[in-house]
Design goal:
Strand content: 35-45%
Largest sheet: 6 strands, antiparallel
Shape: globular
Number of strands: 10
Order of helices and strands: HEEEEEHEEEEE
Structural class: mainly beta
Number of helices: 2
Mean pLDDT: 84
Length: about 150
C-alpha cells in the first residue's frame, strides 16, 4: 500500500495555485496529514471517523508588514480531504515558498468546534521550515517525508 500511496503522491505534486500568474503556478510545499486514535485507525473516514471530510478547512495566518490576514489555504480539486485505497488524509498545499517567514501559522479546522494549529521554525537563510509543530508538539523536521500522522 505504501508503494501505491507514493505513486499517488507523485501524481499530485504538480498543482495549480488557483489563479494564473505570469510565471506559472506558485510552488507549494505539500504535506499529507493522517488522523488516527488508539481505537480508530482513520478519523477522517466518512463511515467510521469522527471528522467529516466536508467540514475540514485550512487557513494560513500571514503577517505582511505588520498586517495580519487569515487566508484559506489552496484546495486540491475544491477540497482538503482526499483518499487513496480507502485511507483518508488532509492534503495541505502550503504557501511557505510564497510567504516564507511571513507565514506565522496554519489553522486546521476539523469541524466547527475543533481547530488545531501548525507553527514553524525557519533557518534564516532558507524559505523552507526547519521544523513543523502541531499544537506545539514537533511533528516534522527537515529531511522527513511529506506524510505526517496525528494521533488524537
Amino acid at each position: 500500500m505504501k508503494t501505491l500511496f507514493s505513486i499517488f503522491l507523485a501524481s499530485v505534486l504538480v498543482v495549480d495555485c488557483g489563479h494564473i500568474c505570469a510565471c506559472g503556478p506558485e510552488p507549494r510545499a505539500i504535506y499529507y496529514f493522517f488522523y488516527k486514535s488508539a481505537s480508530n485507525p482513520d478519523l477522517l473516514q466518512p463511515q467510521s471517523g469522527i471528522y467529516k471530510p466536508s467540514d475540514v478547512k485550512l487557513y494560513e495566518v500571514i503577517n505582511n508588514n505588520g498586517t495580519v490576514t487569515q487566508n484559506a489555504a489552496p484546495e486540491l480539486n475544491g477540497q482538503y480531504v482526499g483518499s487513496q485505497n480507502g485511507v483518508y488524509f488532509i492534503t495541505y498545499q502550503s504557501s511557505l515558498f510564497q510567504y516564507q517567514m511571513d507565514l506565522k501559522k496554519t489553522l486546521i479546522q476539523l469541524n466547527q468546534g475543533v481547530t488545531d494549529t501548525l507553527t514553524y521554525t525557519f533557518v534564516a537563510s532558507s524559505s523552507y521550515p526547519q521544523q513543523i509543530f502541531y499544537n506545539s508538539k514537533p511533528v516534522w523536521k527537515i529531511g522527513d517525508g511529506m506524510e505526517i500522522t496525528i494521533v488524537k
